[in-house]
Write a structure and sequence with these properties.
With 278 residues, the protein is of the alpha/beta class. The protein has helices at 38-41, 43-51, 61-66, 76-93, 104-112, 116-121, 124-140, 161-169, 176-179, 205-224, 235-247, 253-256, 263-271, and strands spanning 2-10, 22-29, 96-103, 150-155, 192-199. The chain has 13 helices and 5 strands. Helix 7 (124-140) packs parallel to helix 8 and helix 10 packs across helix 11.
């Protein structure tokens, strides 16, 4: 059994934003049997945060990386070290990771053109959340003895929580072809326990890891695909190296962006960033 911890970075809104070209949403999939080790394994990060008097309510990756708020008094070397500790931990523990990457302009272009799936989901956040659940289903559906059952825990997003929970509890018919659902399979999304659950990110270490993964992934694409200028010399290379660590733990691309002519598969490929480096 697994717990899927989810957080997003980038666009979270209900209209286009030229400053936010991409939404990255990450899911970390630790086995529930290994979770008891988590607190002990994060002790170094916890110590760094405590020694620098950073409140646990200010652990968002963007603020940490940019040195905003309480992080302004923490050196860049220490802040970058925390990112590296998160990503090295993820790599060493060999937890599977899933990324949903959505080009926001492509999403809204489809919605404006009357695409039925884009209109049903409404916004990139909902599309990303559903994509992660479908990818987990596709990845785990073949596991025996229900070993793939997953509880999904998201960072709270008040404006979208009900829509996401409803979609996962009652998946619409257009999701069937994403993972090859057949009526004989019984319950749809049977690898997801009930629906989605939402928590405050500072109450869960693993949501903070997902936040770091989503932030690094988004920034990597902004710097390499979308032409964003570096904030400092060497930023592009540093973020590329971090992203390579993330890539080594990703499930196969075919589980997240399936090949096929079905509408749902084509939709997710169409809203993916151009030249996506996965």
């Amino acid at each position: 059994m697994y717990i899927g911890y989810v957080d997003e970075s980038g666009f979270v809104g209900k209209a286009r934003d030229s400053d936010q070209p991409i939404q990255a949403m990450a899911c970390i999939l630790p086995s529930i049997y290994n979770l008891h080790r988590t607190t002990d394994e994060f002790v170094e990060i916890t110590t760094i945060i405590r020694e620098n008097d950073v409140p646990i309510t200010e652990l968002k990756a963007k603020e940490m990386y940019r040195g905003w708020g309480a992080w302004s008094r923490v050196s860049g070397d220490i802040r970058h070290r925390i990112f590296e500790l998160y990503l090295k931990w993820l790599e060493d523990r060999r937890h599977k990771t899933i990324l949903s990457l959505i080009d926001n302009n492509r999403f809204f272009d489809l919605k404006d053109s009357g695409n039925s799936i884009a209109n049903h989901m409404g916004f990139p956040y909902v599309a990303g959340a559903l994509q992660l659940a479908l990818a987990i289903q596709k990845h785990h559906k073949g596991e025996k003895r229900n070993k793939g059952k997953t509880i999904l825990i998201f960072d709270e997003q008040e404006g979208f929580e009900n829509h996401v929970a409803e979609l996962l509890a009652k998946p619409p018919g257009f999701t069937d072809n994403f993972y090859g659902y057949q009526p004989r399979d019984g319950i749809k999304l049977n690898q997801i326990v009930d629906t989605a659950y939402f928590v405050k990110s500072h109450h869960a270490h693993m949501v903070q890891v997902a936040d770091a993964v989503a932030f690094v992934s988004r920034l990597h694409l902004e710097l390499t695909v979308y032409g964003k200028a570096q904030a400092y010399d060497g930023e592009r290379e540093r973020i590329r190296n971090w992203f390579e660590m993330i890539k080594r733990r990703l499930i196969t691309r075919g589980c997240v962006y399936p090949i096929g002519s079905h509408e749902i598969c084509e939709f997710y490929r169409e809203v993916a960033p151009p030249n996506m480096p996965l």
